[in-house]
Amino acid sequence: MLLRASKKYSKEVSLYEPIGVDKDGEAVSLVDVIEMENKEVLEDLILNQDIQELYEAYQSCLKEQEKDVIGMRYGLFGKQPRTQREIAAALGISRSYVSRIEKKALLKLRQGMECLG
Q1: Backbone phi, then psi, for 28, in 5-degree steps?
Q2: Among candidates 116, 69, 77, which has minimal Cα distance to 95?
Q3: Which of 48, 76, 95, 101 has the greatest number of CB atoms lying within 10 Å of its CB?
């Protein structure tokens, strides 16, 4: 019986068993490798999902003028970010109005992402 039980577990590998050494001579286990790669992959997946949700909220929640202001202010779609003064001059409105539009649009985006996420 003991022989059968030990044979069953002979193919199993512990996540904490050393599988090699790093450049500093420290033992590296399987769990170290899995943790490193999964963290980066998981963070990338979460970031990509957040970006997708942000663009969906941008398209569905904002009015055209709000899209223009946010797009110019933060340099979306490959454009250079602009100051509120530059946006005001381009749109023919006051800088304080640009500030109010930006604040309102950011609130809409935040709420839109919460609804989507």
Answers
A1: -115, 130
A2: 69
A3: 101
User: How far apart are the C-alpha atoms of 96 and 108, rounded to whole Å?
Assistant: 19
C-alpha torsion 53→54→58→59, nearest 10? -30
d(CA 40, CA 27): 21
Both tokens of residue 39?
């963290």
Q: Which residues pair with 21 in a beta bridge?
A: 27
Q: Which long-range contacts does 96-103 make (Cβ < 8 Å, 24+ apart)?
A: 98/69, 98/73, 101/65, 101/66, 101/69, 102/69, 102/70, 102/73
What tokens appear for 112 in the block? 């839109």
- For residue 103, pLDDT over 60 is answered with yes
Q: Which domains does the chain have, with CATH numbers?
A: 17-116 (1.10.10.10)
